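Assemble and predict.
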Amino acid sequence: MNKIVIFFSHAGDNYAVGNIEVGNTKIVADYISELTGADQYEIVTHKYDGMAYNPLIKLAQEEANAGELPPYEGQAPDLSQYDTVFIGGPVWWGTYPQVMFTLFKDIDLAGKTVVPFTTHEGSGLANCVSDVKKAFPQATVTGAFSIYGHEVRSGKAKVEKWINSVVK
Ligand SMILES: Cc1cc2nc3c(=O)[nH]c(=O)nc-3n(C[C@H](O)[C@H](O)[C@H](O)COP(=O)(O)O)c2cc1C
């Protein structure tokens, strides 16, 4: 089984954890790769670089309300060799950040197993699973997982328990 983790994660000023050098979701993505050997594709935008938490919250809300699709850096990944695709990001206003939906439009996951995960500060999976199902109606979406952002640095065991339950 070939696996890849597709994720977005925002380093910098954030809720509950202060100004972080490595984003919460990236830490979980790295645990997944370490535990399963999965490759990684990071969705990158420089749109939010250096922003303080409050202006970022406001901008993200505007983007979500408008259904904006901000561009990502570089090319979409070639996913032809993968059968399992982990998709992870922070919850921003109840779902994944809009830039993730920009990438979703550019990839085809038909016939693949898709495992969504989030880091969050209270919303859990929020609408992420249903939004992933909507984006990829021909994928098998299963095994979703969420973890508090402030918990990830001491949360490897939790991630491992989940991984063991989804990866046979
Ligand atoms: C713009 C923005 C919006 C957020 N909205 C939510 C939310 O709706 N629900 C929630 O539980 N947490 C929310 N959070 C908290 C993040 O989901 C949480 O801190 C997450 O772990 C950040 O992951 P990252 O460091 O990988 O970007 C928000 C954070 C930001 C910056």
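The first strand starts at residue 3 and ends at 7.
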